[in-house]
Amino acid sequence: TNPLKRAADKATDVLRGDGAGPEQGIPGKPGPEAPPVAEPTEPHEPFPLKADQTAPDTVSPTGQPTGADQARMAQSGSYLTNAQGTRLYDTDHSLKAGPRGPVLLQDHHLREKVMHFDHERIPERVVHARGAGAHGVFRSYGTAANVTKAAFLARDVETPVFVRFSTVLGSRGSADTVRDTRGFATKFYTSEGVFDLVGNNIPVFFIQDAIKFPDVVHAAKPHPDREIPQAQSAHDTFWDFVTLHTEATHHTLWNMSDRGIPRSLRTMEGFGIHTFRLVDADGGTTLVKFHWKPKLGVHSLVWEEAQIIGGVDPDFHRRDLADAIEAGACPEWEFGIQTFPDTSDQTFRGIDLLDPTNIVPEELAPVQPIGLLTLDRNPSNFFAETEQVAFHPGHLVPGIDITDDPLLAGRLFSYLDTQITRLGGPNFPQIPVNRPHAPVNDMTRDGVHQSAVHRGVAPYRPNSLDGGCPFTAGADAGAFVEAPVRVPEATKVREAPASFDDHFSQPRRFWLSMSPVEREHIIGAYTFELGKCYEQAIKERALRVLANIDPELCAAVATGLGLPAPEPTVPLADVAPSPALSQVGHTWPTDGRIIGIISGPDGDLDGVRAVRQEVLDSGMVPLVVAPRGGTLGSGTDAPAVQRTYATARSVEFDALLVAGTPGIGVDAHGARDAKAGLPTDRDGAPDPRVGLLLAEAYRHGKAIGAAKGGESALEAAGIPLDAPGVIAGDGATTVLQELTRLLGSHRVWDRFPSTA
Ligand code: HDD
């Protein structure tokens, strides 16, 4: 149990006294029977400091170092105090004129406590408000050392990182599994300063110029009159914008694909999107695109799962990430770069590298691994770390520079600006999670929330009063020096280059690269989203856009909407598919996969025990699902029950195994057997919630197994025992082996109608 809580409970008990009035616990005024002083019996040590929370090199007014010690000050000592460090004897009652009398204005503790509470919320991020973060480490292979002088990319360098994943559209409290782009922002605390890679799980963007960002966000956010729908793109204003503004077509298509509903944050790719410029030690430059490749593979939910989870467990992704890290199944991504020569036209094989709606297929420019990211520590305080972390694409280090992508240019302005509103002033780099691990010696001073006490009298250059310090460094001493790139002579215009005008060939490549089942999902997503729109004109316009991607896609969605399919208005692009874009057809590790083992008190308990152990031994997670909580059966080795028929839902499991007879559980209200409400001709049928578990898992293409009589539960759920991915056998562990093999492909793809 939590020592903090125990101490707090004990202290409260002591203060309350046994039958004594509240005043009897006041220190110094003991009642006759109460102990004289409230002594917490198990004071806790200060929380351990985090390496990433060391502060700028400054001193406090008392000459004590701040920063590291300041972080410790956040919670220290055994006694409850006010914000000024004065100990409190009671924080549960306002100061009153007698127990039933009016509250006194002079209650300064009440005033301070409520004042702070009133200001606990800060503005949520205008986009990417819903997020989850984790600490980790980046280990560099050194394979990029020939193209960049960035110290953290040299061979075998370890750099602490903080990563924040997010959805884009929803508010802070919105559901995790909505159809949306996911943010993938990484803060590298390098020895040369902070480098932020502020990317997404989709390699292209809606717009080519940052000046359109307010438009796309206003269109995608809830309607301004009723503020609905929350965290959805399935509404008129979104589709109005993306069908009028066809440069959004490529990103929208990715959103409508399985990429828009990741299975887990641990199974998402990440992309830097823009083309960046790497600079080597001799000043040579290379254009690159950054990639994060998850070791567990790229996996998604199916749409029905995503919708169910939105209600059943809105924190699904956040919980999954934190649980995995806590269990030691630390997620890993390989960092990679696609490299391109830094030519004057900044194109590669005809693809404009400055257009952020373009990818370069991996078949044309392979992703070369340059390091490994491991997330191994959960934040200890969500607000302090995940909420207050502030990313900025302009946080660059020597060896990594920007290009003239017009989307990136606007971002360089926007991210600093937004932190001033969100974090209340310009000193947000001093917030612990934002502090660089390299020494900071800047000449910015003062401002709201200044927490450094700077030394010296001359925060300006040149100066003589501080001995001319600090000095500027040259490139040879680790300074960030902009790559001396030639800017073409030109006339000021508000225009995009003609090469930005092709809005359909890249989406067509994506569509052609999808497997049949992925195409079916895309058709389903467009049909759903456009079906939620009210305006006929928007649906018709959307179909005209789809016709320019592919007639088959357009016709299928048109059928679903009950509208005629229009003809393309541009010639269909002749592009080769990029197989790397498909998520289907690979085999992946099964680490961390969740196996639901369903059984009842009369089930195959030996089988449950054996399967549980094998699942654990192979790095997966067993969850025993049974009619009631507690243990399954009796005896010291009776398996513990993690989910009951009332609390389990299929969406949590990657595969299900029924070991023997599942039995009947208590209904959701705990009042009676679930069977009691069933018609008598269902007597002998398993619990209907087991049927729902199995039927959903079957519909969602999950591997399902049954052993020792569990087959009858499958049959009762209408699942054919000879269907693809359904394994029936006598030994539970033999069935498990087959299920594990199937899990390597993530789902039983053969079960989806389109591939039958
Ligand atoms: Fe942005 C947040 C990713 C274009 C303006 N953005 C934000 C976050 C991510 C991205 C992952 C959340 C960071 C966090 O976890 O704190 N944004 C992108 C990508 C873009 C992009 C990959 C295009 C390639 N963004 C973009 C543009 C603008 C912004 C063009 C403005 C002109 N983005 C912001 C912002 C946010 C933000 C308003 C909100 C909170 C924050 O910055 O710190 O400034």
TrEMBL record:
It catalyses: 2 H2O2 = O2 + 2 H2O. It is an enzyme of class 1 (oxidoreductase). Residues 55-74 have a biased composition (Polar residues). One of its GO terms (cellular component) is cytosol. Heme binds at residues 125, 164, 213, 411, 415, 422. SMART domains: Catalase. Transmembrane segments: none annotated. Its EC number is 1.11.1.6. Residues 29-38 have a biased composition (Pro residues). The active site is at residues 128, 200. Residues 1-74 are annotated as: Disordered. GO terms for biological process: hydrogen peroxide catabolic process; response to oxidative stress. Keywords: Heme, Hydrogen peroxide, Iron, Metal-binding, Oxidoreductase, Peroxidase. The keyword Heme applies. GO terms for molecular function: catalase activity; heme binding; metal ion binding. Residues 6-16 have a biased composition (Basic and acidic residues). It holds the Pfam family Catalase_C. Decomposes hydrogen peroxide into water and oxygen; serves to protect cells from the toxic effects of hydrogen peroxide. This is Catalase. It comes from Streptomyces fodineus.
